[in-house]
Design a protein that fits this description.
mainly alpha, Serine Threonine Protein Phosphatase 5, Tetratricopeptide repeat, elongated, PEP-CTERM system TPR-repeat protein PrsT, TPR_2
């Protein structure tokens, strides 16, 4: 047995009556076993009841009362398929539908068989409360199918027969909230409260209504009241803690969760949230004792049970996320959002999973779909903004920024984002100048320092990038992450031994910091110690078997060791896990190009262009490969396209010039190098490149004029 008594998730959903009054023609040889089972069931001794029922059914497999009671016990303990079999067999053997509808309906709910519920056609003989309970189950199935019209119809049928039935009024209020109809929701909530002023779900809905109307103080009070009536309502608990977190009232959130844990020490959601809150202190990663306890809870549950309960899916997603099981976390959050599509916290968690696995396109699609909701939290909205920039959609980032500035005109992080956007639009030097001019008055601002450090790193100004990182280490001397940032800069700078020391410092503060271990593996790789790098790679892959960056490093190491076939297979494996992974496909292009397999290189480059058709680097690389394959006409077409995307971009204009020269387009080559020099007038390299080109084209007079 699964021992679900601790969780209280399944049993609370079973609302039917006991089988005290059931009377069937059971044989005399089984009646005693059945009576013993029934007595045990009525005092919640389910294991004992199960044993007596097995004896009864062995003696008489057609004992309908025993079969139905067996189904109920199997349902309580989470054996859903077996419970369904008992109920359907009893129904086919002629059992009274009034004794079966409610437990069978709940079983189908847990099994996600919502269509089976809405299409069930043997309910005409249901009467009284049994009919009411079936309508409630059907309404729930309709909600899960996102058929709110159907759900409203079923709830309304209940109220026609039972005008004071609170669950139906709560159901209609919930639908009204989903449809952004606060007045209708308030009407149903008030009616429900007039009937039962201590109904936990009604108070939770009051809290959600207050939140919808922007009254977070009342929302908090109502949710607290809901939890006084039902401490085990996971939705109210999470709504309340989310309010505390949104208000950045972490101390109050922590105290509240501690109170829940004191009342119910084994409450899995409270344990998880407590671990989450502790993790915000950054003193330890969330693989602590409480998370392990939560893992034990989740391990007891069948996949069917987890899939049947949205809150279990949410918890499963979070535990998998914190355990670095990103693939499972993505599946859990995706399944959860299919049932709770507007849960913005789950949306953000799924986006974090996508970002951790470099599935930037999926993260962008997800967050862009919820862009309006993200505007309520500028930090979340700026994650979307960063994705717009990463995916070369600066115009969308600009539009998002404008909407945010209307709401939050004095938000400093928006000003930092504006600078990043400026750099993305080709004005990197101007953006860096703004950062440099603002440095003195902002050098105690951690957000500014992160942006300062990272943007100078992108510009390969390692001295200033390190300055920002150094100030962060002085500001947060016990934060492993800032030393890891410092190490990342040193790695890019080629200062590998110094980078190794910074990583070792990070790991001394947090021995389990995954990114630091990865950076150490990457550093060993660059130092040429492939064996040590591979040892760490295998350790990292044990913790997270499908961590994309680690798999990329493993493939890179294989290529360094001359194992090109293994490297190519690893890159292809990465693309199976993450079909949109850009880095893997880019490296495949390079590997095939280096091997002289230009056709395959071109195939993978076209796949990159399919998702990013206006990427100038891909287009320039494509033209280069086409020239190598002597596909001059195709190369010319590609260059005609890329010309539209490189105006004012000096490095790309230089490459564009060289490719035109290879095609014999001398004038286009000269025009491009001239444009490059105008874009970067202080670049000696570009000036010399222009002189060299003029000499190559026998334009000596113009070349001498430039030199003079």
């Amino acid at each position: 047995m699964l021992g679900l008594k601790k969780l209280g998730l399944v049993r609370s959903a079973i609302i039917g009556t006991l089988l005290v009054g059931a009377s069937f023609n059971s044989s005399a040889t089984t009646s005693e076993d059945y009576e013993k089972a029934l007595r045990a069931y009525n005092v919640s001794e389910y294991d004992e009841a199960y044993i007596h029922l097995k004896n009864s059914l062995q003696k008489d497999p057609e004992n309908l009362a025993a079969k139905i009671l067996m189904g109920r016990i199997l349902l309580i303990n989470g054996y859903l398929v077996a419970a369904e079999q008992e109920f359907t067999e009893a129904l086919s053997m002629g059992a009274d539908i009034n004794l079966l509808a409610e437990p069978l309906g709940n079983t189908w709910l847990f099994l996600n068989k919502y269509k089976d519920i809405t299409e069930f056609n043997q309910t005409e003989k249901l009467s009284g409360e049994n009919r009411r309970d079936w309508l409630q189950i059907t309404a729930t199935a309709c909600v899960r199918l996102e058929d709110l019209l159907c759900a409203k119809r079923e709830y309304s049928k209940i109220l026609n027969d039972y005008p004071t039935h609170v669950p139906a009024m709560n159901g209609l209020a919930s639908i009204a909230l989903q449809q952004d109809n606060p007045d209708l929701a308030r009407n149903y909530i008030n009616r429900a409260e007039a009937v039962d002023s201590e109904n936990a779900i009604t108070w939770r809905l009051k809290g959600q209504l207050a939140y919808l109307e922007g009254d977070t103080q009342s929302a908090t009070e109502f949710l607290q009241q809901a939890l006084t009536f039902n401490r085990e309502d996971p939705i109210a608990l999470r709504n309340l803690v989310d309010l505390y977190l949104q208000a950045k009232d972490y101390d109050r959130a922590r105290l509240f969760v501690a109170e829940i844990i004191e009342d119910t020490p084994n409450d899995p959601l409270a344990i998880l949230l407590n671990s989450w809150l502790e993790s915000r202190e950054a003193d330890e990663i969330i693989d602590n004792e409480k998370l392990e306890q939560l893992n034990e809870f989740m391990a007891q549950l069948s996949p069917e049970l987890i899939a049947s309960q949205p809150m279990l899916l949410y918890i499963s997603g979070l535990t998998n996320f914190f355990n670095n099981n990103m693939e499972k976390a993505a599946k859990d959050f995706t399944s959860y959002l299919q049932q709770e599509s507007d849960d913005i916290q789950a949306v953000m968690m799924l986006s974090q999973v996508y970002l951790a696995t470099q599935q930037y396109k999926q993260a962008l699609i997800l967050l862009e779909k919820h862009q309006t909701a993200l505007l309520e939290n500028p930090e979340s909205a700026l994650i979307l903004g960063d994705l717009f920039i990463r995916q070369n959609k600066a115009f969308k980032a600009e539009r998002l920024l404008q909407r945010l500035e209307l709401r939050y005109p004095d938000n400093a992080k928006l000003q930092l984002f504006k600078i990043k956007l400026m750099a993305a639009r080709g004005k990197q030097q101007e953006a860096l100048a703004i950062l440099d001019n603002s440095f003195e008055q902002n050098k105690s601002n951690s957000s500014f320092l992160f942006a300062y450090s990272l943007m100078h790193l992108q510009a390969q100004d390692f001295e200033k990038s390190l300055l920002g990182a150094q100030l962060l280490t002085e500001m947060f001397p016990d934060e492993a992450e800032v030393y890891n940032l410092q190490a990342g800069i040193l790695i890019r700078q080629g200062e590998l031994e110094e980078a190794k020391r910074a990583i070792e410092k990070a790991l001394s503060l947090n021995p389990t910091l995954f990114p630091a271990k990865f950076n150490l593996a990457a550093t060993y790789s660059r130092l040429g110690d492939i064996d040590k790098s591979n040892t760490l790679v295998e350790e990292l892959l044990t913790l997270s078997p499908q961590h994309i960056e680690t798999l990329l490093l493993k493939a890179f190491n294989a290529a360094r060791q001359g194992q090109n076939n293994e490297a190519k297979q690893l890159y292809l494996d990465i693309l199976v896990i993450s079909p949109a992974n850009v880095a893997a496909r880019q490296r495949l292009v390079t590997v095939y190009q280096n091997e002289g397999d230009l056709s395959t290189a071109l195939y993978h480059l076209d796949r990159l262009l399919k998702d990013n058709f206006d990427n100038p680097d891909y287009l320039l690389d494509k033209a280069s490969i086409q020239i190598s394959m002597r596909l001059q006409n195709e190369a010319q077409k590609t260059l005609n396209i890329v010309q539209n995307f490189i105006a004012g971009d000096a490095p790309r204009l230089v490459k564009f010039s060289n490719l035109n020269l290879q095609l014999g387009n001398d004038e286009q080559a000269l025009d491009a190098i001239h444009e490059a020099q105008k874009a970067a007038p202080n670049s000696h390299f570009i000036a010399l490149s222009r002189v060299r080109l003029l000499l190559q084209l026998d334009k000596q007079t113009e070349a001498e004029a430039l030199l003079n």
